[in-house]
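Title: [Solved] Putative ABC transport system permease protein 3D structure

Original question kept below for reference.
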Amino acid sequence: MKLLLKLVRKDFKANPVITTVLTVFLILSAILMAGGLRVAGTMFSSLDGLNERAIPPQYLQMNKGTYDESAFNNFVKSHDYIKDSLIVKMLDISNANIIYQGETLEKCLMDNGFVIQNKGFDLLLNMDNEVAVVGDGKIGVPVYYAQELGIAEGDVITLRKGNYSKNLTVSTIIRDSTMNSALTSSKRFLISQSDVDEISQHMGEWEECFEFLLKDGTSTSVLQKDYIDASMPSSGVAITGSLLTMMNALSYGLVAFIIIAISFLLVMIAILCLSYIIRATLAEENYTIGEMKAIGFPKSEIEKSYQIKYSILALVAAAIGYLVGIPFGNFFSASIIKYCGNGNDEWMKWVYPFVGLILFGLLVILRCRKIVRKNMKSTVVELMRGEERIKKEGHYTLPLAGLRHRNLTIAFGELKCKWKEYSVIFFVFVFSSFLILLPMNMKNTIENPSFITYMGIGECDIRIDMQYSEKLEKQKDSAISYLENDSQIKKYQIYKNGYVQLQNTKGEWEYLRVENGDESAFPLEYLEGRAPDENAPNGSKEMALSYLEASELGKKVGDSMTVNYQDKEILFNILGIYQDITYGGKTAKAAIDFDEKDVQVYIIYLDVNDGVNILEKTNEIRSILTDSKITPISEFISQTLGGIMDNMSLVKDAAIVISLLLITLITVMFLQLITAREHSAIAIKKAIGFSNKDIRMQFGIRILVIQFVAIVVGTVLANTLGESIFSLMLSSMGASKITMLVEPVTAYLISPMVQMLVVFITVIIGTKVVRNYHIRNQLME
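Solution (posted by the thread starter after getting help):
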């Protein structure tokens, strides 16, 4: 064993550059693996901890308008599968009446409700995940606003309408297991009972949340059907606990998914490089191995001498990866902890990376063992003669006409006959280009205004939302009257949203959100088929389903479906399937003439004329339609997906740094190996008249040509395979097919130039070693 360790130490000293580069590769892989798994462990722990202490409802039905509390209590008593229930009264206050640092919250997409602390479940927590308590004149602000607007304890929130004004001092930041995520369009502020009583006399509109906890094994669809059948109050959105969990997981888990995916790819690249290095090392040391076999060294001991080195590297990489992965994972987990806390099961963020790195180490060691054993099958004579190496050496023929462009001709000739040696560096260059472009293209896609079409909305300039209230019809009429007479409005279209009943695959009745309006005014890109036509021929009814709803129901274009509205069955032909990531991804579009009392929401999409400033027009409309929510569509996307976009920016920056480091390391390592293997050829070239500059240029041409082809391949993969990966990540939200939107100057010009410049500089530095190779050294050998 002592002799083996001595041989390993000697090998480390003999190849310090290659050993260092390989170690860095393995360490990078281990850090990303540990960091990604730490983010995942933190997310699971934090969500579990938040839900355990806050106890979110399993079913929530929002409602505006009058209701009979005794009827609700009787409903709860008559259904024994209901474990607990709660009526949460929210005082909805217009964003125009909420002021922070001199500005209203009109630019914010969120609907804001003011509540008192609940009892039993659905508790609002402070930043220590304890039940939040506020006194008179104090307010608890959602963590979303603390993150987005920088609201902190001690700041003052002012509520103002007309002559009435109320100052509330922020005493705590609150976590809300029900409305935490940016994907949830409502947020709750916590105030005292006396303050809410006072404020309600001057402003706001009451809205109720009817919340339920169910006994184990009870489906929320059973409760939903019984609730609607009993004519319980239901003039707002219904949300299930599973939908809340999904929105939270998507908000915080996307980064973990991307980092882990990158780490797996990097591990594969590291193992590919490892395989190449082992083969190159064994090929160089065939004679030494043959000597060891000839003098009686056992085959198993020779194998150990090579395996120990890489086992040590794998263990060192895993240890460093685990230690560095802690702050790396914590950095990307900061948003999760901010929104959800540290959680109760902190062991997850320690154990997940540990288990992952054990598997990482085993994978590397087993791969090394397999390669070494395969290369030990040669006989002593073959090893001593170097026959295996001779068989793999390529040759090329110089042109009879001579070398007009000698460096170019020699470089391409060597590249042609030795292309297998360049396969590893080619794949690393492909991966690096792919890794740079994928997060960059993802971010560009999400930030592009056309991304709105994946949210079930046609591309437009401004969106107007009118939520259910007793004056909803009056709001709608006022909006239409204004838009009709505004010469700066290019076009607009109003859409009604209501609910119908349908049977799922289990035979259970559930409710589906349906939008009714002219879908051709602001068209979507359909996955299959087309938009429903309000004036369909022969009186037939047409419907389009969102991707998730169609998948859950097992429906496709051409099928028919029966829905129930106002106790009447209506048969629809399914003409199209579209993507939608709003309302849990389960919606439909159809020509259903909803009664005014059944309309939950009116939404107006509009375009302004060319040259009209969208933000200025938005502010003008806000000043006129004060009871409606007016949002530029760019803000709608950024606020809905803001947290995801911020995380994508971090991942994009990290991916660029990692990729540039990768191509630098692989180029250094490859030049070290290839110049060592070709030292005889370099010396001969010098002897026949090639200068150091010529030889270095030939190496540069070879590597830069490989890189150029790799960048082209990586770019194609980022636009094809990248789309599939992005679609996979968003498919659970309801978008199964994303068209990647590329910023061409950055993706096709700046990014390739930066990568090639990094390699060019590395080649200049790395090929200086050719000065040390001379023909006299070869003659002496």
